[in-house]
Each structure stands twice: as C-alpha cells, then as structure tokens.
Amino acid sequence: MHVYANPARFLKIARPLTAWLGWLGAVLILVALWFGLFVAPPERFQGDSVRILYIHVPSAWLAMGGWAGIAAAGLAQLVWRHPLAAVAGRALGVPGAVFAALALATGSLWGRPTWGSYWEWDGRMGSMLVLFFLYLGYIALAGAERERDGEGRLTAIFGLVGAINLPIIHYSVVWWKSLHQGQSIDILRGTSAIAPQMLWPLLGSAIGFTLLFAAIVLMRMRAELARTKVEARMKRMAAE
User: Fold this and answer.
1) Is 29 within 8 Å of 201 (Cβ atoms)?
2) Distance CA 171, CA 145 (A)
3) Nearest 5 degrees, angle CA 68-CA 72-CA 74?
4) Phi, psi values for residue 118, rounded to 5°
5) N or C: which end of the chain has fewer CB within 10 A?
C-alpha cells in the first residue's frame, strides 16, 4: 500500500507510464472504432444505430469505474492515511464526470432511434444522471477543501457514500422495469450474448478508453503534485 506513497518514487514511474498508456490507448481506440464502425455488421433489429455502443458502453463502464476508484482512494485516505490517496481522488473527479456525461449523451442519441425519444426516466438512465451530479458535487467539494488546505476527509467520506449508487446502476435493470437490456457480458463466467464480430471491437474500445483514462488520471496526479510543490515553496519564501 505504501510502496509508492513517496511522491518522488511515484513520479519516477508515472512520467513514462503516462505516455505509454496514452499512446497505446489512443491506438487501440482508433483500431477498435474502425472495426466497429466499418467492419462489424449492423445489428439485426437496431441496424447501424447500434454502433454507438463502442463509445457508450466504455464510457458508462469508466464513469462507474472512476467512482469506484474515488471510493477506494477515500478508503485508503481514511483508513491507511495514504499520502497520495487524496491526490488520486481529486484526479479522478473530472475525467469521471466527462465519461459520465459522454455516457448520458451517447445513450440519449442511441435512444432516439431505438425508443423514439432522447430521454426516458428509466432506472439506469436516472441513476447514471445521479452519478453525474455526484461527480459535480465531488469536484466542487474537493476544490473547496483544497482551497482551505484541508485534508480532504469530507471529500473522502462523500466518495464512499456516493459509491452506494454503483450497485443501483448495475442492478437497475433487475430491480425495476427497464428499457435497457440485461447483462450481455458475464466476465466471471466468460460468456457473452454479443456476436464475436461486435464483441471484439467493443472489448478493444473498452481497453483503449481505460488506458487513456488511466493516462489522464496519472497526468492530473502529476500536475497536482507539481502544484503542491510550488505552493509549498512559495509559502516558505513568504515566511523568510
């Protein structure tokens, strides 16, 4: 847990890793989207409109995964006092919000030809909208605590409490009547209801977006640490 607690040790690894993850993620996204948009066949009932899933599904996964990371960072901060936990949590906020917004936008565009409207108060859409607003609240709270030179404990608690929404999003299609279909990919069982010609581009896109997401988070963590270092130096100069 504390192997990379030292910022200098973390930065030594994060600098080259950021570039590798970013470039690899970008290449995977381009290749996967090319196969998904131009090679994979149209879906039998939804036709070509289903191709938006290659962006929509990874965006939804990362919006949820980003908040899971925020909750994990909050737990590490509150329980183990990990020095980089608060930095990681703040770094996850904006990218997570962007992917949540992207999931909502692409879902609405997909819903227009499928359901006949851009928005329905479906359980999954509603809970994803709640997640987006949770991100906005987290970003605002984290910024306010940082300006007051706080430890970020309230932000960490907020992240843990907000994680309650994650199982609601996942199981909303089971608990309530939903326009969304059930689980198509079961990672634990290694099964999928999606045709291989569509599955592989989807997995490639998901991996690519995940690598790009990780690169953005690492870049934001590095920027946060650099800002903290500059602020500490300015305070020392002002005290002299």
Assistant:
1) no
2) 33
3) 115
4) -75, -25
5) C
Burial class, 232, CB count within 10 angstroms (exposed 0-12 / middle 13-18 / buried 19+): exposed
Phi, psi at 150, each rounded to 5°: -80, 170
Convert the pLDDT of each residue in 82-104 to its tens digit.
Answer: 889 999 999 999 999 999 999 99
Q: What is the 3-state secondary structure (H, E, C) of the chain?
A: CCCCCCHHHHHHHHHHHHHHHHHHHHHHHHHHHHHHHHHCCCECCCEHHHHHHHHHHHHHHHHHHHHHHHHHHHHHHHHCCCCCHHHHHHHHHHHHHHHHHHHHHHHHHHHHHHHCCCCCCCHHHHHHHHHHHHHHHHHHHHHHHHHCCCCCHHHHHHHHHHCCHHHHHHHHHHHCCCCCCCCCEECCCCEECCCHHHHHHHHHHHHHHHHHHHHHHHHHHHHHHHHHHHHHHHHHHHHC
Q: Which amino acid is it at 107?
A: G
Closest CA to 11 of 215, 216, 221: 221
Q: How far is CA 108 from CA 72, 81, 155, in A?
A: 30, 41, 30
Name the pLDDT band for 188 (thresholds 50, 70, 90). very low
Q: What distance in Å separates the CA atoms of residue 68 and residue 75, rounded to the nearest whole number?
A: 11
The pLDDT value recorded for residue 122 is: 86
- Amino acid identity of residue 217, one-letter, is V
